[in-house]
Design a protein that fits this description.
The complex is a heterodimer of chains A (135) and B (509).
Chain A (H helix, E strand, L loop, with lengths): L1 E5 L4 H17 L2 E5 L15 H13 L4 E4 L6 H11 L4 E5 L5 H6 L3 H8 L4 E4 L3 H5 L1
Helix pairs in contact in A: 3-5
Chain B lengths: L1 H10 L2 H19 L5 H8 L8 H26 L8 H12 L3 H34 L4 H18 L4 H16 L22 H19 L18 H23 L6 H14 L12 H23 L6 H12 L8 H4 L1 H31 L5 H20 L2 H19 L5 H23 L11 H24 L6 H15 L2
Helix pairs in contact in B: 1-15, 2-4, 2-15, 3-4, 3-9, 3-13, 4-5, 4-6, 4-12, 4-13, 4-15, 5-6, 5-12, 6-10, 6-12, 6-15, 7-8, 7-18, 7-19, 8-18, 9-16, 9-17, 10-11, 10-12, 11-12, 16-17
Classes of the chains: A alpha/beta (135), B mainly alpha (509).
Keywords (chain B): Membrane, Transmembrane, Transmembrane helix
InterPro entries (chain B): DUF112_TM
Protein name (chain B): Tripartite tricarboxylate transporter TctA
Chain lengths: 135, 509
């Protein structure tokens, strides 16, 4: 079985990664870290740089986890995370959630919300705290 | 001098100052965004000329032009993706500096260098304009014909290493210019009454720049995001100032005359400036790893060339860059014909414009030094949002020319042409210059022949005309010889940079 983590190089993504790694260690399962982008802007802050990805890989390796980190350009990030979970027959998806203003909700969709609603398996929604920030 | 002061008084009215601020803000924004440049922006804004008075519109367009030159450097330095073809050379050293943790200094030397060069360029412009206008006014139709031919030739042949592509583009432009029955005889109208008045140049410009670019982006929408180098407030140390001021001045010396010549704008002088700085530097070991001289010189050169471009534009009505070409359209849409008489017929307009260049420069320095990190945020806008807006304004602009739905069809067809040109690497500049200069070339030719009653030798009856033809022949021979000698060798650095500039030009107008 596999645990899928929706990752982005910010507090929320790191919180998701920390909880996902902990859960994978506990259950002894494979970990799939997904960091996709729509690739329609020239710069995407939620798409990790190569050295950040290398750091994530190194950290997961020191935890002794069987982990895979994936970065792709896709049409829709939420759809891609859900599809990855379906294909890997995942037991759990971990996403980071954040507070959003009413205006923000009206204007922008939420990747986490769509993952939660569309996922074929249970979804663990986590918030950043000091502990996960340190990871 | 009094005239200039009067110009300042005109340019500093709250209304015109507002246009200057809007112009520099817009200009910097489109300069930062790769794919969108001052030429496209001015083309999209042409409909405002129906409501705004000439001085206000021209002040805004000049602000956009100068702002584009400033903004282009930001993307070059932080992303290694030139925002403008004039900033291609800046990326060589600028991005290396940023990677070495000196992004703040690179941005500072680019902004301050642009200010210094833009100001010196504007002073030269103010000093030269009246004198050149006095000279030009003595020219007859044969000389005008020769000068325009020269402009078409150099703009086509100098930029990019593929002359064939340049000439294909030029002749496409001249063909589009033929449509209509202005000469009393219907040409290429295919019996359509809508085509009898010709295709409006505004529609051509908007189609080639905006629709062509939007289609191109739509075809290449999803790309792996680029790594942007985070940057704080731009600043420079004493040592950086010491290493920058000479390249600024030398860059200005290259930029202004090249801008004034019809040689394709800023690419050649920025490259010459880069080579010069690399040869003269006291820190040759830093070149290729991020030398501040390699940013300071070219950035000064591109702003000085922007000022230089205005000399032939205002004095002869001869555009030498895509942005200047669209600005010419704006001037003409007021029924004002740029040329030697402009100084006498519209002194207020000219001097207000010249004064506004100084104001635009100061505004740009004040805005850009503290705001560089904010401008970089523009790069996060998803492109579909940007291009939806561009398509909207393009359709609006094309329709408002004649309020004729037929024009929207032409817009789409020429937009597809623009897309095909990007796809096959044809430069856009020769086409647009061809469309604008084609009819005027014909007009000068008919005038000359009418005066001489059909005697064709009138074309080389004036000394200036002869001189221009000789110059053209010399350039053609030099290029042929250089091309022949280079055959079999690898393309050298100049060619590579010019090609990259031409490519940036094709998809970043």
């Amino acid at each position: 079985m596999t645990i899928v983590v929706g990752y982005s190089p910010d507090r929320y993504g790191r919180a998701a990664l920390a909880h996902g790694a902990a859960e994978a260690t506990l259950r002894g399962e494979h970990l799939l870290v997904v960091n996709d982008t729509r690739g329609d802007a020239l710069v995407d802050d939620r798409f990790a740089h190569e050295d950040e990805i290398a750091q994530v890989r190194a950290r997961l390796a020191t935890l002794g986890l069987d982990a895979e980190v994936r970065q792709e350009v896709v049409r829709d990030v939420a759809e891609s995370v859900v599809r990855a979970a379906a294909e890997a027959a995942a037991s759990l998806i971990v996403v980071g959630v954040r507070h959003r203003s009413p205006v923000g909700k009206a204007l922008l969709g939420s990747v986490a919300q769509r993952v939660i609603l569309d996922a074929p398996c249970p979804v663990l929604a986590v918030k950043p705290n000091e502990e996960s920030d340190a990871v | 001098m009094d005239l200039l002061m009067e110009g300042f008084a005109n340019a500093l009215t709250p209304e015109n100052l507002m246009y200057a601020v809007i112009g520099v803000l817009l200009g910097t924004a489109v300069g930062v965004l790769p794919g969108i440049g001052p030429a496209m922006t001015v083309a999209l804004l042409l409909p405002i000329t129906y409501n705004v008075d000439p001085a206000g519109a021209l002040i805004m367009f000049a602000g956009i032009y100068y702002g584009g030159m400033y903004g282009g450097s930001t993307t070059s330095i932080l992303l290694n993706t030139p925002g403008e073809s004039s900033s291609v050379v800046t990326a060589l050293e600028g991005n290396k500096m940023a990677k070495g943790g000196r992004a703040a200094q690179a941005l500072a030397t680019a902004a301050i260098g642009s200010f210094v060069a833009g100001t010196i360029g504007s002073v030269l412009l103010v000093v030269l304009m009246p004198n050149i206008a006095d000279l030009v006014v003595k020219l007859g139709a044969p000389s005008y014909f020769a000068i325009m031919l020269f402009a078409l030739f150099t703009v086509t042949a100098v930029l990019g290493s593929s002359k064939v592509r340049g000439f294909i583009s030029l002749f496409l432009g001249l063909t589009i210019a033929l449509v209509g029955s202005q000469t009393g005889q219907a040409r290429l109208t295919f019996g359509r009454p809508e085509l009898a008045d010709g295709i409006d140049v505004v529609v051509v410009a908007v189609a080639i720049f905006a629709i062509g670019e939007a289609l191109w982006v739509a075809a290449h929408l999803r790309r792996r995001p680029l790594e942007i180098i985070p940057v704080g407030q731009p600043w420079m140390s004493r040592a950086d100032w010491g290493r920058s001021w000479k390249p600024w001045l030398r860059g200005t010396a290259y930029g202004f005359p090249f801008g004034a010549l019809p040689a394709g704008g800023a690419e050649v002088p920025t490259f010459l400036s880069y080579i010069t700085e690399r040869r003269l530097t006291k820190h040759p070991e830093e070149f290729g790893k991020g030398a501040i001289e390699g940013v300071a010189g070219p950035e000064a050169a591109n702003n000085a060339s922007a000022a230089g471009t205005l000399v032939p534009l205002l004095a002869i009505g001869l555009p030498t860059t895509a942005t200047a070409a669209v600005m010419l359209l704006a001037i003409q849409s007021y029924g004002i014909q740029p040329g030697p008489q402009l100084m006498d017929t519209e002194p207020e307009l000219v001097w207000a414009l010249l004064a506004s260049l100084f104001i635009a420069n100061v505004l740009l320095l004040v805005l850009n030094l503290p705001m560089a990190p904010i401008w970089a945020k523009l790069l996060r806008i998803p492109r579909p949002y940007l291009y939806a807006g561009i398509l909207f304004f393009a359709a609006l602009g094309a329709y408002s020319v004649n309020f004729q739905p037929f024009d929207l069809g032409i817009l789409l067809v020429l937009g597809l042409l623009g897309f095909a040109m990007r796809r096959f690497g044809l430069p856009v500049l020769p086409l647009i210059i061809g469309v604008i200069l084609g009819p005027r070339l014909e007009e000068q030719l008919t005038t000359a022949l009418a005066i001489s009653q059909g005697d064709i030798s009138t074309l080389w009856s004036e000394p200036v005309a002869v001189l221009v033809y000789v110059l053209m022949a010399v350039i053609a021979v030099v290029m042929a010889v250089a091309g022949w000698r280079r055959r079999g060798h690898d393309t050298d650095e100049i060619d590579r940079v010019l090609d990259r500039a031409a490519a940036t030009d094709a998809d970043d107008i």
